[in-house]
Amino acid sequence: MAAWARAAAMAMALAGCAASKQQTRPPGPEPEDLNTAEPPAATAPAPAPAGPVASAAPPTAGQTYVDKTHHFKIDRPGPCWSFKTGEELASESIEVPVVVACADSGAQVVVQVAPAVATPGQFAQRLTSGLRTRTGFETTDAVPIALAEGAVGFDFAVQDQVKGKVAILDGGQDRVFVLLATWPLNAPSAVEKEIDQIMASLKTEAE
Question: 75: helix, coil or strand?
Fold first, then answer.
């Protein structure tokens, strides 16, 4: 598994611990392409599809993914980015409606929806504390960010292989959104700027 994927899996597991004491399952294969611009209607993660899911229309800059189940929307900044299902990364306590991924750079932004058993600040504190106990992980302190009222975020790195950032915000209806971005250390500087654009584009019902 690629370094960024290991980092994502680790942070996902820690997010699961922050949401509940239930253990997350190991992530499965790479996410499949979504077959529409909107996710399935199910409110809980469904079993992974047996085969590849048909791709949507060719990616276009600024195309928006709309989730009517979890009440959010998010954009992709250019044609290299695509929307993929996150079902294989979900757990009993964490839903992953969509992953915004760039095949060219290996970067991705994972959109997670968790029960609001803690405030965004408390989630961030638990995540940073947990990551700092893991060999090779370094994180900044969680600080307020402009993504939404009450949102917090922090950056992290895994040795000399991968960089990442996490944004946590209130999603309304007793849930929080956790945006987990990872990209290879040697990715072009433009990749991080595009990740910031993706995170900033998230709009939720709570706003």
Answer: strand
Question: Whole-model pTM?
Answer: 0.74
pLDDT digits (tens, 9 = 90+) for 143-202: 999 999 999 999 999 888 899 999 999 988 788 999 999 999 999 999 999 999 999 999
Q: What does the block give as tokens for 27?
A: 């992530």
**Are the beta carbons of 152 and 124 closer than 8 angstroms?**
yes
Alpha carbon distances (Å) from 43 to 29, 91, 154, 184: 21, 13, 29, 32
- How far is Cα 115 from Cα 122, in angstroms, rounded to an integer? 13
Whether the Cβ atoms of residue 135 and residue 74 lie closer than 8 Å to each other? no
Give the helix/strand (H/E) hosting 196: helix 189-201
Place of tokens 């250019």: 78
Separation CA 94–CA 192 (nearest Å): 25
Rounded-to-integer distance, Cα 47 and Cα 101, Å: 21
Q: What is the largest distance, in Å, between two alpha-carbon atoms of the chain?
A: 43
